[in-house]
Structure formats: structure tokens, C-alpha cells
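Quick one, T. Sequence first:
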Amino acid sequence: MKPARSLYGVAQVRAIEHAALAAAPAGALMRRAGAAAAGLAVRLLPAGGRVLALAGPGNNGGDAMEAAILLAGRGWPVTIDFRGSPSSLSADAADALRRAQASTAQFAPADMAAGWDLVLDGLFGIGLARPIAGDLAELVRAVNRLRCPVLALDVPSGLDADTGAIVGPDGVAIQASHTLTFIADKPGLHTADGCDHAGLVDVAGLETDPALFPAPAAWLAGSNLFAANLRPRRQNSHKGSYGDVAILGGAQGMSGAAILAARTAALSGAGRVFAGFLAEPPAYDPPHPEIMCRRAADLDLEHATVVAGPGLGSSGQARSMLSQVLAGAAPLVLDADALNMVSAGADLRNGLVRRGGALLTPHPLEAARLLGCSAAQVQADRLAAARRLAADFGAVVVLKGAGSVIARPDGLVVINVTGGPALATAGTGDVLAGLCGALLAQRWPTWEAALAAVWLHGAAADMLVDQGVGPVGLVASELPRTVRTCLNQLIRAAAGH
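C-alpha cells:
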């Protein structure tokens, strides 16, 4: 089982850091940060490797210089490119600069043709408020063209540690192979642009007293968050023990979406699966004849977990059936066209708010329609968008994308860690919706069902990529069987088998 990791925003980390500084000797936190960075750098360096340390005008630059001092003292060839003013440094950073100048490290502008074996990025930390521009932007672009490891200290310079967005519409950010973040992990390292810029993320706690940390409002996903529901099946059970799933979708030309969701629900453990089609239904699904294909109007929407949206369209019939679902009390997953109809109709929107407790799985554009904003605004702060949706609709929300964000109405969010660009293909959302429905049908609580579904969905893609299937060319229909494998593996692991 992979444990979850707490995440803290910039304001919270600054408060923790302020309290830690008051309790520690002068310069202690910066020296600890430098020691942790030097330790990781040594593991990344080849024998005799050359180090370029980029030191900016703030305490992040001081961290880089502390690391440079230690590396130079151990015999590594180190060059420091200092991009600040000594007179404006904090006392701790000024002390680091003086000792770096007295060390064997060289101070010189970065020569990108010098054949570096490691770059330490200490240009800007979590406090960057405006885009990197001018000569520093050119420096960042030059670093990003290098083919050596890049170790970002605290956060890749230019990346917003809260949101994962690059600072500024025309901003740039370091593309690190590794990030060593200090005191606590930050959400922006794991979603949006953070997924492409942070690389492998480690946390150095800097010996910070755990009592200084408030209860986290965000977590990096771990299977322990839903492990209590991973129970082996009882011998004395039957198909009725594991619930029914009804897929509501399959308009003309979009039957495949309903089939994908239905297949996934069946392979993820639902007792019975009904695929409801607004278009003429097929007699059966040849690969999976156990799925019962029906006209949508013939579905029993009162006694099954309903997954509404895969290929549903926006016809009058689709709208009428969605209204019927929203008036009911069955466990409910809303995806795709169902979400778009809710965003376009006040009566449907009010119906969703009144019923509460649904599980919504929007991608950024669907989320934007529900929020009345642009997809770019959603992506600029994915955690805030997911929290607002969850609060507005009294729902558990999965905001899909790089670092999918799962939010609940009380504001707690989890950022998923599995999956990747292999999922950037048509139909994978239908697979996720069917998986959510299957777990709900098996009586998983909505929050844990969402966490597990997103985790398993991404884990299945990761497994296929590891087997050489993708990321390029992986298709959604390849996922359901691998989801089944991943789910059974987790259940066996939870049982200690």
C-alpha cells in the first residue's frame, strides 16, 4: 500500500517556517536545506561531475549556495551563478554568500556549453509573484535545453507552488528532473504544469516540529485512503450482493461510450450491468454478452447505481431522462453530456443541487461550463475550481487532467498520482465513469469510490505503459481488463496475501 502524503499551500508553509525559524538557531533551516540538497545531488552526480548552482536573490538562492558549499567541500567542481544583490539578501542568505565566496566554488555566469552534469535551481522559491522575464527567462530556457539532471530546490523556478500553473501568461519555468521541496509537500508540484516541471519529488522536512503543522486540507493520493473498502469477497455471496449498474447514454453515433462504461462496470465487480441506449440498442455486446443492452426508457433507474452521460447527447429525451434521474435517490455518477446539460439548464442544475451526494467527473471544459468561466481559468487553479464545484453542488468532484483533483464539499482535496498522457485519448472518461459506478454499486462510500476509481484508472494505464502498450496509441478499450487486475491486486495486498 502506498501511503498518502499531506500537502500544504504557500501561506501555510510560510507560517510553519516562521514558527520554526523562531525556535531554531540563526541560519539552521537554510543549512539543513542545503545539506538535504547536497545529499540528493551526490546521488544524481557521476564521479567527478560538474555542478552549476543557480542562486537567485532570495532565500532560495541561499539554499543553493549552502548546497554548493558542501559539494565544493567534498571535492565536486562547482560553479555558482549568483543573480542577486548582496545588499538585499536576508541575514541567513548573506551569510551563505560570504561562506560560498570563501569556499572552493567558483562564481561565474552560467556557460551552457560547459558540459554540466547537474544544475541546482535556486533562482526563485515559493514566493515568486510575477513571471520570469528578460535575461532570467533566457537562462531558464537554456537550462531546459540541457540534457543533464536538474534539481529544483523547493519548487521549480517559475512554477506556482499552490496551483501548478506557470506564473504569468507568458512565463517560463524550470523543467526539473527532480524537486526537493522543503518543510512540506506542495500541491502545485503534482497537478497542471507541475506534472511536467517538477519531475520526481522528494520532501526534506528540515527537522520541523510536527506540532507546527495544522491539519492538512489537501493530500497527495495514496491507496491507504480507500484501503478499508478493499475487502475480499465472502464465499456466501451472489450477484445481488454486488449491486446493479445502469448506464444511461448511447445516443445515435455514440453507442461506444455506453459500451465502454458498461464493460468497465462489469469487469470492476458490479453484480449486474445494464447498458441503456437512447439509440436502438444492440442485441448484445459480443465480447461481453453478460451486459444487458436495453432501450434507455426501459431502464430501472430507481434500484441501480446510475451512470448518466456516456454518449448521452442533448436531445429532449436525454434531458427528460436526466431530469428523472436527478429526481430519484439512487447512487449517481454524472459525466460528459449529463454535465453539459446541467450547466445549460437551470432546472437540471437546481435538481442536482437539491439531491446532493452525486459523483461528478468533469474534464476542465465541462468544469468551466458548470462554473460559468473559461477552461483556462479552471486550469489556472485546479484545486480552487474543484472545491467550488463540490461546494456548489454538494457533490464529490473529480476534476480530470494532469494530477486529477478529487474534492468534497467540506473543501478537502486529494491530488491523484497515477496515470499520465496514455489517458489522453477518447473514451477513457467513459471507463472512469463506469468504474465509479461499479464501486458505488458495491456499496463503497462516494468519497472513497472516487479516490479508488481515479487511482485504479491511472494505475491500469501505468501498468499497460510498463508493458509497452502506450503511452502513444493506448486506447480506452484496453483499460477495463487491466483495471480488474489492479483492483484484485490491491484487494489481495490489503488482505495481506
